[in-house]
């Protein structure tokens, strides 16, 4: 998964600037020299972006958060009983402010379940805040927080945290991946878990296409601001001069593939200079930057994914509209 080459860009024939893969600088450069251009949604979540995402979760149009909260509320007792069978390490990938996970934490804690909580998030500020809040609310709960990307975190957990694990991958974060990335990610988790460990993944389901479209084209423009914030982040952290008013947000939904794709579109021909690379990037009028995938799934697609990545599907937990599922898979076939 981690490749060890680096992009080199020649400037003035003599300055060669090299960056490490998986850093903001490397990925921004790699994305902006491509055609069509891309940026990675994993960089949405600086302190400001994490705050904007918390606003998105409050939007009337953005149903996934409420659906998943309802699922966890409805099924928290069943999940408690599942975790009673062992001492569980509850690993929360992309914990954020853990608004939803707290439904489980609260229920488990009040029922005296012995467990450890391990939140993982790429945003150090989010992890920091969460850990403090949890210590306040649940003084006896062991919390070990990890502020890094999923892959590094999982490797750390694999080597440092023996014992039964329930890995939570909530909120349809899996929707950000292409099918290939999805399989790679799920297979990596399979490799880093033990037989009978569990993975609970939130999948946003295919549904009325307009409901989906509206969730990413909210009337208050918060989602546009969320995307625009990455251009702002590049301005701040890499010394860019993106004119934020000269890019507009657009999100499409294809009901066949289930992919919502989000773009920032240059409304005119323009140059964007980025100091970190000591060079400009040319945009044609109406040239796109792909910002994010937010994939929606059919149940059959979910089950095919599980099978392809050697999991056994235990159950799909639904909200009452069947808009969303938290799908519980068991790691299987390790001892074969
Ligand atoms: C956090 C990746 C699940 O794709 O629905 C919300 C992010 N983007 N609105 C999603 C997001 C635009 C969200 N995920």
UniProtKB/TrEMBL annotation:
A Pfam family hit: Methyltransf_33
Ranges annotated as spanning the membrane: none
Record flagged with keyword Transferase: yes
Name of the featured protein: L-histidine N(Alpha)-methyltransferase
Gene Ontology biological process: methylation
InterPro entries per UniProt: EgtD (IPR035094), EgtD_Methyltrsf_superfamily (IPR051128), MeTrfase_dom (IPR019257), MeTrfase_EgtD-like (IPR017804), SAM-dependent_MTases_sf (IPR029063)
Top-level EC class: transferase
Sequence ranges assigned to domain Histidine-specific methyltransferase SAM-dependent in this UniProt record: 26-330
Organism per entry: Rhodocytophaga rosea
EC number: 2.1.1.44
Record key words, sorted: Methyltransferase, Transferase
Record-level Gene Ontology MF annotations: L-histidine N(alpha)-methyltransferase activity
């Amino acid at each position: 998964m981690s490749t060890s080459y680096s992009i080199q860009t020649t400037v003035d024939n003599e300055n060669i600037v090299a960056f490490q893969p998986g850093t903001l600088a490397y990925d921004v450069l790699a994305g902006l020299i491509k055609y069509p251009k891309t940026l990675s949604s994993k960089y949405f979540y600086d302190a400001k972006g994490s705050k904007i995402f918390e606003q998105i979760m409050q939007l009337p149009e953005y149903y996934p958060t409420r659906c998943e909260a309802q699922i966890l509320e409805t099924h928290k007792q069943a999940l408690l009983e599942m975790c009673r069978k062992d001492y569980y390490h509850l690993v929360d990938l992309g914990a954020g402010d853990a608004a939803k996970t707290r439904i489980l934490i609260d229920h488990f804690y009040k029922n005296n379940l012995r467990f450890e909580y391990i939140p993982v998030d790429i945003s150090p500020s989010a992890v920091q805040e969460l850990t403090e809040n949890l210590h306040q609310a649940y003084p006896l709960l062991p919390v070990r927080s990890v502020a890094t990307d999923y892959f590094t975190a999982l490797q750390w957990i694999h080597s440092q945290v023996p014992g039964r694990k329930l890995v939570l991958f909530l909120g349809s974060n899996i929707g950000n991946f292409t099918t290939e990335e999805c399989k790679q990610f799920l297979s990596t988790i399979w490799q880093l878990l033990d037989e009978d460990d569990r993975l609970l993944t939130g999948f946003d389901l295919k549904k009325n296409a307009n409901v989906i479209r509206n969730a990413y084209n909210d009337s208050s423009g918060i989602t546009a601001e969320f995307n625009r914030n990455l251009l702002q982040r590049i301005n701040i952290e890499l010394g860019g001069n993106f004119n934020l008013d000269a890019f507009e947000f657009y999100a499409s939904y294809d009901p066949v593939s289930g992919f919502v794709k989000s773009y920032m579109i240059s409304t005119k021909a323009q140059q964007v200079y980025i100091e970190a690379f000591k060079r400009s990037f040319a945009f044609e009028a109406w040239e796109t930057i792909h910002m994010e995938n937010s994939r929606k799934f059919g149940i059959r697609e979910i089950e095919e994914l599980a099978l392809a990545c050697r999991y056994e599907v235990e159950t799909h937990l639904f909200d009452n509209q069947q808009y969303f599922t938290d799908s519980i898979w068991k790691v299987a076939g390790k001892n074969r």
